[in-house]
Design a protein that fits this description.
Layout: H1 2-10, H2 12-18, H3 21-45, E1 51-52, E2 55-56, H4 57-70, H5 85-91, H6 104-133, H7 142-173, H8 177-190, H9 202-208, H10 213-216, H11 218-225, H12 230-259
Antiparallel strand pairs: 1-2
Helix pairs in contact: 1-6, 3-4, 4-11, 7-11, 7-12
């Protein structure tokens, strides 16, 4: 029975996507356009230079395209399906999370797992097409590919907890639209989604080192393109694991505090 409940929770948002073919078509078109534009941009930036900020043209294009593909892991349209914590708080339906057989924290985690597996299918498909077309470079060795996969897993784990913190903020502010927009922008900027962190000033790189954002994407992609050598990868993996543990403990504390703020009126 527990497995059945877990399966039902994990497929909530992906089913909303699969039952809306126009949305899937829009995702495909947007992903293709993003990859083409990003690859064209970086090819253009390197048209008069061979190496910039320690990156060759192939490394820069590979990094940028992989960042676009990785964004599909957490970009499902929950808002259309009225499945965001913000909407549940607004309509008062968040109380049902505390009446289900699954605890709310487990339901949230399983739902996110289903989303990431669905997004991973998109990202993997896009990666294989880009690799076959020569848009991105292949990993330099099997060892690099393995360490990259582990780092990417840890990075997505960290990203889940970062996004969970945004959801948990709703329990204390009711509406957190502005905070969500600010933090999502900060997450994308400091994780290297818009551009590799090596193009930013030293103070910015130092500041981002004290935050969990770069552990979500910059670290695994840096390992993939060789910016972080395998000899230094263990330390980066340890930092990612630290953020996983720290954010796990902090979000568990917030779940307990959030439960005290949920009020069921009537019945």
């Amino acid at each position: 029975m527990a497995v059945l409940h877990a399966w039902r929770a994990a497929r909530v948002t992906p089913l909303g996507e699969l039952h809306a073919p126009p949305r899937m078509t829009a995702v495909l078109v947007r992903l293709v356009v993003q990859v083409i534009l990003v690859a064209s941009l970086w090819h253009g930036l390197y048209s008069h230079t061979g190496t910039t900020a320690g990156l060759t043209e192939g490394q820069a294009v590979t990094y940028a395209v992989l960042a676009v593909l990785a964004s599909r892991l957490r970009e499902l349209d929950q808002y259309t399906g009225r499945d965001t914590v913000l909407q549940h708080m607004h309509f008062g339906t968040i109380v049902y999370w505390y009446l289900r057989p699954l605890p709310p924290q487990r339901y949230h985690a399983l739902r996110a797992l289903g989303e990431q597996l669905y997004g991973f299918a998109w990202a993997l498909g896009g990666y294989l097409v880009c690799l076959a077309a020569g848009v991105v470079e292949a990993p330099r060795s099997a060892a690099v590919a393995g360490v990259f996969a582990l780092s990417m897993l840890l990075g997505q784990w960290v990203l889940y907890y970062v996004m969970l913190l945004l959801d948990q903020l709703c329990f204390f502010t009711i509406r957190n639209n502005s905070a969500m927009l600010i933090l999502i922008f900060a997450q994308n900027l400091m994780s290297g989604v818009y551009a590799p962190l090596w193009f930013f000033p030293d103070w910015f790189i130092t500041l981002s080192g004290f935050l969990p954002f770069q552990a979500t994407l910059s670290v695994p992609l840096s390992i993939y393109i060789g910016r972080i050598p395998l000899s230094d990868a263990a330390g980066q993996l340890a930092i990612q694991a630290f953020w996983v543990v720290a954010l796990t403990l902090f979000t568990r504390f917030l779940w307990r505090r959030a439960a005290r703020r949920v009020i069921s009126q009537g019945g």
